[in-house]
Amino acid sequence: MHVEKLVRKTLSVKDHRVVSVKEIDGSLQIELDMIRRRCLPCSGCGERRKVRDRLPLRVWQHVPLWGIPVTLHYRPRRVCCPTCGVVVEQVPWSQGKSPLTVPLIVMLATWTRLLAVDVVARLFGVHWNTVYAAMKAAVEHGLGHREKGTVLHIGIDEISRRKGHIYHTQVYDLDHKVLLWSGEGRSEETLRRFFEEYGKANLAQVTAVCCDMWEPYTKVIAELLPDALLVFDKFHLIRHLHKAVDEVRRQEAAGHRKKGITLLKGERYLFLKNQENLTDKQQRTLSFLNRFNLDITKAWLLKEEFRLVWLCKTGKQARRFLHDWFRKVRYSRLEPLKKFVKLVKNHIDGILAWFETKISNGIAEALNNTAKAISRRSRGFRTPDAFSTVLMHCMGGLQLPHTVHKFL
Q1: What is the DSSP string of 43-54?
Q2: 42 SS3 class
Q3: Is the C-alpha dihedral spanning 102, 29, 99, 75 positive or negative?
Q4: Per-residue pLDDT tens over the stretch 307-348
Q5: Measured between alpha carbons, how far is residue 367 from residues 9, 68, 217, 237 in Å?
Q6: Is residue 350 within 8 Å of 213, Cβ to Cβ?
Q7: Beta-ladder partners of 62
Q8: Could you tell me the sign of the dihedral formed by the alpha carbons of 255, 258, 259, 263, in that order?
Q9: What are the backbone dihedrals phi and psi of residue 333, each rounded to the nearest 5 degrees, phi first?
């Protein structure tokens, strides 16, 4: 098989021909030209129109052939379209003004879903900017062809991009387990950017939004999605409860240290783990500590009792359960748990909304771990745009541009 035939087959060109294939400086330079007296498709509407003139020479980087760099050389034509005007033809191997061919974009973008950008660059002997450009072009194509308006449940959470409390807001589709949007910051303006870029009309069918009790998020959601049910993530709620229980332990341990008692030393996670997850040794230690009238023992018992709220069948039943639990906390005189009760009372409607939808940010937390793994394999990102692009490419469920020939 000649190289000319190989090029025509892999690019699926019907209106163009291979003029020459030359080896110059260790690379293959393939010159293409249009077939004479052919009408070429318009890049705007796709209809075949008469050719008007030609543009200066353009060069595209193509998929390497057995490790040999390949470039395509072609002078694009302009066509006279009664609908679109005088526009450039639809070049079958090109996407916009990208200097990379569509097959090369697809191949590099596919590998960057598995490996870091610099690793892919070394594998194919190209600059990392070339790989990043291919990935960015693939993301733009995927976002342009993504089906919107089918999202029912949204999960909103944040992830740390680098040290210094620099966060990114992550918006997930909880049903399809994909990333919808990623942007730097965790403020009202950040979440408003999501609604502007994704389109408020595309979120008209959203029935529930799950997030933590971060006020900037809840304020924007109540304003822009008033018909959606706001559900506070139960895992974040349990995290606040664990923080209160640990505060009780630290206060009591500090009082014991002043008396020279080390009874609670090294037992932090003993009181934070669920009872069924305790080891035999931890069970024996807990039974020993229960002999003493300790505040941390009271806090642990209240923590274990609070977990039963999720076994209630309805929100009304859960509300009655919580009111009884609030009364027990009030009699316990444990200030950290009283603060937790105040937090629950202020957000009780969003907490009990879980019984209507049964959604949580457990999927969002799992996807956040995937995002962290992507960041670690790339050893971090310098710019927020690069971080968002990589996450959208790997976790957005975006489709790649169509190619006739598969190179992988």
Answers
A1: TTT--EE-EEEE
A2: strand
A3: negative
A4: 999 999 999 999 999 999 999 999 988 999 999 999 999 999
A5: 40, 38, 19, 19
A6: yes
A7: 70
A8: positive
A9: 60, 30
Interatomic CA distance for residues 345 and 338, integer angstroms = 11
350 SS3 class:
helix
**Of the candidates 159, 198, 214, 220, the residue with the CA atom closest to the CA atom of residue 384:** 159
Side-chain-facing half-sphere of 123: CA atoms under 13 Å: 13
User: What is the spatial distance between Cα 355 and Cα 370, in angstroms, rounded to a whole number?
Assistant: 28
d(CA 388, CA 183): 6
* Count of Cβ atoms closer than 10 Å to residue 214 Cβ: 17
For 157, 217, 360, the CA distances from 213, given in Å and listed in that order, are 10, 8, 13
The contacts of residue 199 (CB under 8 Å, 6+ apart) are: 148
Nearest to 353 by CA among 260, 230, 247, 234: 230
Cα separation values, 116 from 138, 278, 368, 381, Å: 16, 39, 18, 11
* C-alpha pair distances (Å), 335 with each of 24, 64, 170, 209: 78, 68, 34, 32
- Residue-wise pLDDT for 257-291, tens only, equals 777 766 667 677 777 788 888 788 888 887 777 77
- How far apart are alpha carbons 170 and 173 in whole angstroms? 10
How many CB atoms within 10 Å of residue 131?
26
